[in-house]
Design brief:
Distance between the termini: 83 Å
Oligomer: single chain
Pfam family, one: HNH_5
Strand content: 15-25%
Mean pLDDT: 75
Protein name: HNH nuclease domain-containing protein
Number of domains: 2
Number of helices: 6
Organism: Papaver somniferum
Keywords: Membrane, Transmembrane, Transmembrane helix
Structural class: alpha+beta
InterPro entries: HNH_5 (IPR029471), HNH_nuc (IPR003615), NA-targeting_endonuclease (IPR052892)
Shape: elongated
Length: 217
């Protein structure tokens, strides 16, 4: 014998499941849209030591483990209200021991992008970036600091296998190798590189707290 109203349970459960799925999807979309709002963490001497995600940045503020020096204009909504996302945080009890590291030999795509401030060295675009050989490989060009620059897909395609003179193109600046030993201004973790790529460069809120990058000299 069926209990009265038993058949109504299934539609209700389906509705609950759909609501949970929709909520999860909304949370994923919010997470993706806020992925480019990372927090720059400074130690007690105002030296950049880390880049954290927006959720971690908010936690550091509310747990009173860091002093917020700059905020993004972006807010996050919660049941208790809206909160601005911290852009730059200083941890009062953290003193980072700076270790010099050899970066001249650490020639990589991310270091080329960082050296060129995530900007095409032909047209200043920050969209669809890739790496270009100034002297094409087919002409004997090598994978070196002096022969590699950041370029947008459009400029890279326009230049093709031509030299700068043949393509009638000019570089914004001459590509150079960094010093033999130096310190990167921003910790280049995979997370920070991804965030900088999403933002198409360094957040303006950070720039006051960053010394000029040695890769940009």
């Amino acid at each position: 014998m069926k209990r009265r109203g038993a058949n109504q349970v299934v539609p209700i459960l389906k509705g609950v499941n759909q609501a949970l799925v929709m909520t999860e999807m909304m949370l994923i979309l919010i997470h993706l849209s806020l992925a480019c709002f990372g927090g720059l963490v400074l130690d007690i001497s105002y030296r950049p030591v880390n880049v954290v995600c927006w959720k971690r940045a908010i936690c550091l503020e509310f747990m009173e483990k860091a002093d917020v020096l700059e905020y993004y204009d972006q807010t996050v909504d919660s049941p208790s209200g809206s909160f601005y996302i911290p852009a730059v945080l200083r941890v009062p009890h953290l003193l980072q021991v700076v270790k010099r590291r050899r970066i001249k030999q650490n020639l990589s795509r991310k270091n080329i992008l960082f050296r060129d401030v995530f900007m095409c060295q032909y047209c200043s675009s920050r969209e669809s970036l890739t790496i270009d050989h100034v002297l094409p490989i087919s002409r004997g060009g090598e994978w070196t600091w002096e022969n590699l620059v950041t370029a947008c897909v459009k400029c890279n395609s326009k230049k093709g296998h031509k030299t700068l003179e043949e393509a009638n193109m000019k570089l914004l600046k001459v590509p150079k190798a960094p010093k033999e030993y130096d310190i990167l201004a921003i910790p280049l973790t995979n997370a920070s590189v991804k965030m900088l790529s999403l933002r198409k460069g360094t957040p303006s809120e950070w720039r006051e707290y960053l010394s000029k990058s040695p890769l940009d000299q």
